[in-house]
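Q: Hi! First time doing this. I have a protein sequence and I read that you can turn it into a structure. Is that right? Here it is:
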Amino acid sequence: MNIKTCSKCKFPKSLDEFQRDKHQGDGHRSECKECSSKAQSKYQTSEKGKQAHKRYAKSYKSKLVKARYRSSEKGKLANIPKNKRLYLF
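A: Yes, that's right. Below is the predicted 3D structure, encoded as structure tokens:
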């Protein structure tokens, strides 16, 4: 049972081509990664998707995520100019 049919494109594909989802019976999503990616990019370029992104960017949660990133090691290094990063090590 290593083959599953995508619910969007209706092509049989291997389970490696599906995202994992523990809530599904077989442990994988019903649409393949390719179809999921196309749907996501279509939504993000739509007017509704752009408005949702603007709402999230203004939200309190977004500010918390940014603050957590800036306080992490990776975030601290990202805020240092590249020409000065060499002198840290």
